[in-house]
Write a structure and sequence with these properties.
alpha+beta; seven-stranded mixed β-sheet; single chain
Length: 174
C-alpha cells in the first residue's frame, strides 16, 4: 500500500484490566476483557513495557485513560495491527506526545501513517496546540513518517529507556 493511501483504522481504548493483562503478557486474560481481538505481538516483549506504564497511569491518573495508548484496529480486516496513543493528557501548554508501534507482520502497509493521522485528528478536535513525536535517529521509517506528516525537528533528548531521540513537533494552532 502506498503512503498516500492509508488503510482505515480505529483507535480502540482499553480498560485497566486489559492494560494490566497485556503488561503481564497474559493474552488470554487481555482478550477476555478487550473490546476487540488482540494479537500475540501486543502481549509480547516489545509492547509490554508500554502497557506496564499505562496500566499504572490509569490507576494513578484516571483522566489519562481517554488519552493513552490504544489498539490500532483495522475494522475491515477485523484485525489488531499495533498500538498508538498519547503519553497522557495535554500539558499546560496544550502539547501532547504521540507514540505508536505496528506489529512487524503489518508494517509497510500504511498503518503507522493511518494511526498517526488518527492521533492528529483527535488532538485537533480536542483543541491541542502542538503534537510532539520523539524518534530515534536510527528509526528511518518513523522519521520519514513524521516528516511526511509535517512535523519539524525542534531538538534532541536522551530518554532513559530509548536513548537519543530527535524531538519533532507539529503545530496545530498558535
Amino acid at each position: 500500500m502506498t503512503p498516500e493511501r492509508s488503510p482505515r483504522v480505529e483507535l480502540v481504548q482499553l480498560d485497566g484490566r486489559t492494560l494490566r493483562a497485556l503488561a503481564d503478557g497474559d493474552l488470554a486474560v487481555a482478550e477476555a476483557s478487550s473490546p476487540v481481538s488482540l494479537s500475540p505481538y501486543l502481549a509480547g516483549p516489545e509492547c509490554r513495557p508500554v502497557w506496564e506504564i499505562r496500566a499504572v497511569q490509569v490507576v494513578v491518573d484516571p483522566p489519562s485513560a481517554e488519552w493513552i495508548t490504544c489498539v490500532v484496529w483495522d475494522p475491515e480486516r477485523r484485525l489488531a495491527v499495533g498500538r498508538a496513543g498519547f503519553h497522557g493528557v495535554p500539558d499546560e501548554t496544550g502539547m501532547v506526545e504521540v507514540g505508536y508501534s505496528i506489529d512487524p507482520e503489518h508494517r509497510r502497509q500504511g498503518y503507522a501513517r493511518a494511526a498517526l493521522r488518527a492521533l492528529i485528528a483527535r488532538a485537533t478536535e480536542s483543541g491541542v496546540s502542538v503534537v510532539r513525536a520523539s524518534v530515534s535517529p536510527e528509526n528511518t521509517p518513523s522519521l520519514n513518517l513524521v516528516h511526511g506528516e509535517g512535523f519539524v525537528a525542534v531538538g534532541e533528548q536522551v530518554d532513559e529507556v530509548d536513548g537519543l531521540e530527535i524531538v519533532h513537533e507539529l503545530w496545530l494552532r498558535r
